[in-house]
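Weekly modeling sync, notes
Attendees: S.R. (lead), two postdocs, one rotation student

Agenda item 3: backlog of single-chain predictions. S.R. asked that every request posted to the team notebook include the full sequence so nobody has to chase files. The rotation student volunteered to paste the first one in as an example of the format we agreed on. Action items at the bottom.

Example entry:
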Amino acid sequence: MIRPLPQRLLARNSFPVCSLRLQTRAYATRKPPSPEGLNYPLLNKLYNEYITYSEGEEPNVHKIHAFKTAISAIDGLPFQVQRIQDVEKIKGIGAGMKRRIEEALLEEEKQGIIPSTNGDVEDKKELLHAVQLFQTISGIGPMKAKKLAENGFRSLEDIMADKATFDKLSRSVQTSMKCGSRTLARIQREDITRLASLMSKVLKEFEVEVTGSYRRGAESSSDVDVLIFHPSYQVIPPQGQRPTKKAQQKVARDESPLLSLVIPQLTKAGILEEPLTSGPTKWQGLARLDPRVDRLCRIDLNLMPTLSRGAALLGYTGDAEFNRYLRAKAAKAGLRLNDFGLWKRPAGWEPSTALESKEDDQSWELVQTSTEQDVFEALDEGWIDPEKRNFGNLQRRKRKGSEHQ
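Predicted structure, as returned to the notebook:
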């Protein structure tokens, strides 16, 4: 028998509302670079990586866009790229892509394709390897990783041994670094299944659902995304409501079932190890795949209202492009879809004269969609299995639709 949560944990709290960007993007396979081009060796390497990300079972749309932007920009240059500084100011090429370009230029330099620049090639290679290593730590992005490497650090041990540098890092980065050797970069599907089973046995009064790439059928994942539901927990933030200030945030934390019930139980059972970030409805940290084995993985725990179950499962299962597609379709129908539900304007509603007014933003009513099927039907969309909710399948569906028009 499932007991209701204590009344003090069901109080109305303040939660952040999803920020929507209702837009769609069209991706098309790019033509291979011309062998006659000035930058063919570099472009060919980037193109091969682009194809790898484009043709997998679950293409990475963000990397696809990054590679297309970089390839287009470099292809239009009237000179041969020989140094990373040659692309430093090109709009749209981010820090991560610059690192890939720098690695490619280093390889060209070693092969004699471009003239050798000042400095030792092996030193450059060592620096790039350090940048790659540091980016495996949660919370360290390309720019921070490059800065650490340029300051002479070559390993995690180097950073931890330098107290001044280590103390300046955030607590979550410090934790990730200390546990780096014990934390798996990829978690196998069977390990996630076993972990979910352990969590369900501990949280007997809660429903535990693993989402993300695992629910889409992936054989391995970089982290474990978990949704947690309880029949008594029905706190759904109204549309347009914004996070409150510190005093009310403290109340929300004190009354959070996630922080007062879920986390303590999982920690006592030896499943949760180290926290990285925590809030009233979301906890990120490290978990043991098996309490008997010293192997850790990244885990995200999200407490969601039961009435939001359908929309939450859709949103957290993904993938990102599939979510954009559904939310854009909702917007075209005059609706709004986020992780908390599908929303409609109340009967008789008329837009305010003030553009994007606060009243307009809050004038939404929740549509009863407690299951994923309910959401699909409300959007006039047929059922799509979680394993097929990806960029590649979405493109195939669009092509079939255009063929029947």
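Discussion: group reviewed the output briefly. Confidence is low (pLDDT under 50) at residues 11-28.
Action items: rotation student to repeat for the remaining queue; S.R. to check formatting next week.
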